[in-house]
Design brief:
Number of domains: 1
Number of helices: 5
Largest sheet: 5 strands, mixed
Order of helices and strands: HHEEEEHHEH
Helix content: 25-40%
Structural class: alpha+beta
Radius of gyration: 13 Å
Strand content: 25-35%
Shape: globular
CATH architecture: 2-Layer Sandwich
CATH topology: Nonspecific Lipid-transfer Protein, Chain A
Distance between the termini: 18 Å
Strand order of the largest sheet: 3-2-1-4-5
CATH superfamily: SCP2 sterol-binding domain
Length: 108
């Protein structure tokens, strides 16, 4: 998947996230740094029972996820397990790890 495809796919997925899944995750910013030839940076702000994607870097994210764009596409498709990617070093997390774990529920 290209960066644009990842952003579009994730935007669509976030529209369908149930507010009950976001319960307990309030005023949190997840930043994603997608590496590789077609990489880029975007962030998701979770607030008020909604998760909104912004195609820009955030000054003070609570959690930063660093992963290759192609691997993130595989995560979204369910072809790559986040825990396995983390343990193998393909996915790196900076910030609050407990919030990062909640991200897996949000992304599905």
């Amino acid at each position: 998947m290209t960066f644009t495809e990842v952003v579009n796919s994730l935007s669509t997925k976030l529209e369908d996230v149930s507010p009950s899944i976001l319960k307990g995750v309030e005023a949190v910013v997840y930043q994603f740094e997608l590496t590789g030839e077609d990489g880029g940076i975007f962030h998701i702000e979770v607030e008020g029972g909604k998760a909104l994607l912004n195609e820009a870097a955030h000054d003070e994210p609570d959690v930063t996820v660093i992963i290759a764009c192609t691997d993130f596409g595989s995560l979204l498709k369910g072809e790559l397990d986040a825990a396995s990617a983390f343990m193998s070093g393909r996915l790196k997390v900076k910030g609050d790890l407990s919030l990062a774990i909640k991200l897996q529920n949000i992304l599905g």
